[in-house]
Amino acid sequence: MVHLSSVQSPNENGLGTEEDKLIRAVKKVHLQLANDEDNFVSSVYGSRFAGADLPRHEMPEKEMPKEVAYRMIKDELSLDGNPMLNLASFVTTYMEEEAEKLMTESFAKNFIDYEEYPQSADIQNRCVSMIGRLFNAPTSEEAHSGAVGTSCVGSSEAIMLGVLAMKRRWKNQRIKEGKPYDRPNIVMSSAVQVCWEKAARYFEVEEKYVYCTTDRYVIDPEETVNLVDENTIGICAILGTTYTGEYEDVKAVNDLLTKKGLNTPIHVDAASGGFVAPFVIPDLEWDFRLEHVVSINVSGHKYGLVYPGVGWVVWRSAEYLPKELVFNINYLGADQASFTLNFSKGASQVIGQYYQLIRLGKHGYRAIMSNLTRTANYLADSLEALGFIIMSKKAGQGLPLVAFRLPTDDDRNYDEFALAHQLRVRGWVVPAYTMAPNTENLKMLRVVVREDFTRNRCDALINDIKLSQGLLREMDRESIKRQEEFIHKHHTASGKATHNHPKYRVRSCGTLLGLFITPPCPTLLLCDTDRVNRRRNILSRARLARPMQSASAHMGSTNTSGWSTPTTNVPVELAESESESEATHSFTSIRKPKATSIAAAFVRRNHQAVKSNCLSLELPGGQKLLTVRIGCA
Ligand SMILES: Cc1ncc(COP(=O)(O)O)c(C=O)c1O
Questions:
Q1: Is 90 near ligand 1, meaning CB less than 6 Å away?
Q2: What pLDDT is recorded for position 524?
Q3: What is the CA 256 to chain-centroid distance, rounded?
Q4: Per-residue pLDDT for 579 more than 70?
Q5: Pick from 312, 331, 355: which residue ends a domain?
Q6: What is the DSSP letter of 316?
Q7: Does 36 map to a domain?
Q8: What is the CA(160)–ligand 1 centre distance, in A?
């Protein structure tokens, strides 16, 4: 019987035996161990660690028990949001226990040690092959002539590698033709994910944008191909934009290139769509079936269904991956060919990807993606019934997400941001943001439908949206604003953040009062309405170090009276003014809506960490004064 035990006395315990005598003798020996404090912890919460703050700045001098360290950190992390309610992210939040076990067991493996972990390396190759075939990559029995690819940390690294390969290939060709190669450019949608801007800036490639319009949130194929010139290293086409999830028409771009006899390569950014379209809409031609598509990236950690940290890039053939970029190194006794930005990385994510590919198979992926598409349709229909305007495509014509906005003609006290804040109080993370440059006056909300977002949870969200709208209807404008500020400050990481170095901190709510163009020196006036700066009436002045090639090209289209039409690179300056009213006065004459897009282009290119969702157009007091809210570095 083990459940009922008596409380024993020392005698009952038999402390009179020879063994007990020995124990008592040992206890008398005075041990002088280097242990000046009793570290024994009976309960984590009874320990002195629970009564003190956790070390923050300086590494502590002494150890803490592992149970305490685990519990204290776990408790702190419980204040993070619940990943399952985070409908902002495309990134996987659910994997089966068996996958988790396999991944945990591989934590100690450094993927780059091919010689030591040959099976992990082989598993990567199997994944590349499966993904390449899913994208209809050419295969060949002949060595080196079929498609090639590699795993990456995510689509961002994959895209960097894709851009580097296109740039080098273009450069090699220019050298061969004896032509200059100092002004490479890339053509892409203004709705690209930020990693494209990063790639262009890091690798010094000029960005040529095809701008979205208020009723087109993807590239216009004709405009795209028209932007191509001899310095174009490639075109980016997105299979599922981050804003609305819509698929760009890769085939139309491809066919136009063929029609015009152009040989420009296309890289498809299939970060999200790469694991959706092949299952839900297999007849859509967007991949290596199209002759100009030379490379494709996909995030394994989005609809590839693996926890964060894995992406893939595949090239049509080795011809599109210049060999100067591939490093053949002899490391730990093995010859390795690698094309990555990083050296060491864990093997777990690659192994997790292989698990999903063979565990689910095409049938499993199709079943999951079909469910997600159905749920997204259901959510879109329900929101439409509530009066929202749906901006994303339904029925599998785009990613399983719902981008929606409030009707513009409604007489409401609240906007999309206020609704997002209300939902945040109820635990949901549904981001509100503004559309890509040129359309940034469109506010919207977006729900990404992921594997673990079931119909049941979808109903809970719809209910909470209804409740939040009811609550907002009861509130006046002032209280909504106060509440928004409070939630931003206390519930969001960006509001609470104090750790960024001042040099790189994003200041919110700068207001661009207008665009003043006097040839030959156009001037942008930036007035910072941040409360502190408002008091000081400081307006920023900054002369651009780098000419704005793309923005100036865009300025060329504002050829109406009062506007200059620079055709070449334009130096742009942020003007300084002593007071806001003076600034306002100087710019009341600016009333061309194009100013917003120019301002947006300016802001995007010249302020690091600027969020395009901070851009908006305001017409205060009926006066046609343009203001653009930005967050600038
Ligand atoms: C279209 C697109 N491209 C690239 C990325 C970057 O992908 P990753 O987070 O895998 O680096 C994203 C991320 O959301 C995306 O939506």
A1: yes
A2: 42
A3: 30
A4: no
A5: 355
A6: S
A7: no
A8: 12
Question: Number of folded domains in the chain?
Answer: 2
* Single-letter amino acid code for the residue at 567: T
DSSP secondary structure letter of residue 62: S
Picking from 335, 355, 375, the residue at the C-terminal end of a domain is 355
Give phi and psi for 390, each to the nearest 5: -90, 125
Q: What is the DSSP string of 106-117?
A: TTT-BTT-TTT-
Task: For ligand 1, say whether the CB of 417 is within 6 Å of any of its atoms.
Answer: no
Residues spanned by the domain of 288: 108-136+147-355
623 CA distance to ligand 1 middle (Å): 39
Q: Is residue 314 part of a domain?
A: yes
pLDDT band of residue 624 (cuts 50, 70, 90) is very low
The angle subtended at Cα 319 by Cα 316 and Cα 320, nearest 5°, is 60
How far apart are the C-alpha atoms of 390 and 92, rounded to whole Å? 24
Ligand 1 contact, 238 CB (< 6 A): yes
User: Looking at residue 263, what DSSP letter applies?
Assistant: -
Q: Where are the beta strands (DSSP E) in 476-620?
A: 507-518, 521-528, 542-543, 573-575, 617-618
Domain annotation covers residue 473: no
**Cα 424 to middle of ligand 1, angstroms:** 24
552 lines ligand 1 (CB under 6 A): no
Residue 102 has pLDDT above 70, yes or no: yes
Collapsed DSSP state (helix, strand, coil) of residue 370: helix
Average pLDDT score over residue span 245-259 = 97
Q: DSSP letter at 496?
A: H
Mean pLDDT, residues 418-432 taken together = 90
pLDDT digits (tens, 9 = 90+) for 476-521: 777 777 777 776 666 565 555 555 555 555 443 344 433 433 333 3
Kindly report which listed range (194-198, 331-335, 563-567) carries the lowest average pLDDT score. Answer: 563-567
Determine the residue of 238, 247, 299, 342 to mutate for testing ligand 1's pocket, defined as the one with the most ligand atoms within 8 A of the Cβ atom.
299
* Spacing, Cα 301 to ligand 1 middle (Å): 10
Tell me if the pTM is above 0.85: no
In a domain, 201, yes or no: yes
Confidence at residue 495, expressed as pLDDT on a 0 to 100 scale: 56
pLDDT tens-digit readout, 326-355? 988 766 566 678 899 988 999 999 999 999
Pair of tokens at residue 265: 């390569």
Two structure tokens written together for 631: 């967050």
Name the residue among 106, 129, 132, 130 with its Cα closest to residue 119. 106
Q: What is the mean pLDDT of residues 578-590?
A: 34
Residues in Cβ contact with 226 at an 8 Å cutoff, skipping those fewer than 6 apart: none
pLDDT digits (tens, 9 = 90+) for 382-391: 999 999 999 9
